[in-house]
Amino acid sequence: MADAPEAAAEAAPGEEPPKKKKPILLILVIVLSVLLLIVSVMMGTLYFSGYFDKKSEAAAHEKVDELEQQAGEANKAPEGPTKVVKESEATRFENSYMQIDKEFMTNITGSKKVMVVQIAIMTHYDSRVFDNVKKHEFAIRSGILDVMRQTTEADLAKPDYRTELAARIKIVMNDILMKYEDFGGIEDVFFTSFVTQ
Length: 197
What we know:
The structure is a single chain. By secondary structure, this protein is of the alpha+beta class. It has two domains: 20-74; 96-196, Tetrahydropterin Synthase, Chain A. It has helices spanning 3-10, 23-48, 51-74, 128-135, 137-148, 153-157, 161-181, and strands at residues 96-99, 104-107, 114-123, 188-196. Strands 1, 2, 3 and 4 form a four-stranded antiparallel β-sheet that branches. It is rod-shaped and about 130 Å long.
């Protein structure tokens, strides 16, 4: 009871007793502070984990794709040949063949021998590929002869040399067609005659 006179002494007559802080306001401030802290931690975690970068990166890729598509439409080259699909099977393409009329003859490097070949080509595309080959026959013949003249007798002794030579000729023909027509289209090269003398 000794405390009671002290409390009475503190509150002098005519003065108001000290006000107690409202506990509801204090609780509200604490709850808001905790919520703010949780949201800050979540946002910081997402930011540093790269969550927001993925969205901006995806948006950037979409924008680049859109710009490339617009540029492609603006600079669109004439449409190239289209692949011919077999009617019976939608996943297989029809093979079309054409033999090049004139044979190719060249000396074998470091030898007195001569190589004479007849070439046929195959494509899955329409006849425009063959039309392009005929149109640029001189350039194609020159490119093929340049490849053939690099042959040596040691090359001819290799069991798979014809396959290697056909692959190199195909590359040269497609490169020439790409240079002049912006489209190659030759799928394979075959030798219908291959003679060395």
